[in-house]
Amino acid sequence: MRGVWLEQMGEPWAVQEVADREVRPGGVLVDVVAVRVPSYTRQVLTGELNYDLPVPLVPGPTCIGRVRAVADDVFGVTVGEVALCNSLYSSGEMSGSPDEILIGWTGSGSARSARMQHQWRHGSFAQRACYPASCVTVLPGADQWTRPELLPFLASLAIADGGLRRGGLRGGQSVIVNGATGNLGGAAVFAALARGATQVIATGRRRESLAALVELDPRVKPVVLTGDRARDGEAIRAQTDAGADLLLDVVGNTPTTDPTLACLDALRLRGTAVLVGGVRHELALPYQRIQRQQLTVTGSFMFDSATALEVWQLVRAGTIDLTRVRAHSYDLEHFDDALETAASLSGLDYTVLLPGS
């Protein structure tokens, strides 16, 4: 089969013939229908982001797949079904601290993580992929979906919705989405609206991308960040009724943590901040304010099957309209072009690889 092959970190990758995947115990073999190409994919492959990639391998994150075969010990998945194949795989301990890897993408660097990656090494930038059954969420009715290039956006929706659930969002509350002009940020706006937020304050630096989010629903209130923490915090708070209930921080690797802190400054008494983004700096939290205002600061990473299925049902019901998302599609042979496009897009535009086309 054809796939993207990375022999060593920092060396050129190639689209070439690679060993075909076979179903293995506990696994589900899928034909890869569509996979999102994240904007930072090139930095992952070159080693710039220091991801723990178990080279040599076929890389690739969470994908949409059509089930081709299932292992004899897998009973909840049927050949022909369309599924969201989550790259997040856990060692699954009920006690202690489990290890987690992103199949085909990164690990934790531990010895156990390395063993997990050895067993489940290859990702989705290929015509076929194999995942543990625990990573596969069947999407009822998705086999009839006429625009498969839009389905990878479900992963972003599930990550965002998982963060909102972690923050305890209830209908009628106000939400700040920091980093709303990114792909995950756009998904977070969709999810917050679908979950009944009365106000969604969308922050970012790209005015045009924010304007596109405002077109989704009048509940979306844009705030263009200036880089001045005090000024930005005041502007965000002015869009709320005396402060927001929840901050979902999905900002990327920014030069400073000031945007996150400005949003934290705009929370109301007993508000909650959920960190979901890709910031790589230390975050200097305002100790006294967190204590006196009884704020909660927590994290959220990836998503589980229950969340994925819920957001899919919201899509099926029309509560989330995926046709508002613009997918830029490429086949495997044009992988490098896909990387270039992915790095240039923002907001509701994203890049998709269609390995079977």
UniProtKB/TrEMBL annotation:
Taxonomy, superkingdom: Bacteria
A Pfam family annotated for this UniProt entry: ADH_N
Cofactor(s) in the UniProt record: Zn(2+)
Keywords, alphabetical: Metal-binding, Oxidoreductase, Zinc
Occurrences of domain Alcohol dehydrogenase-like C-terminal (ranges): 184-315
Domain Alcohol dehydrogenase-like N-terminal intervals: 25-140
GO terms for MF: metal ion binding; oxidoreductase activity
Entry similarity comment: Belongs to the zinc-containing alcohol dehydrogenase family.
Protein name: Uncharacterized protein
Originating species: Streptomyces antioxidans
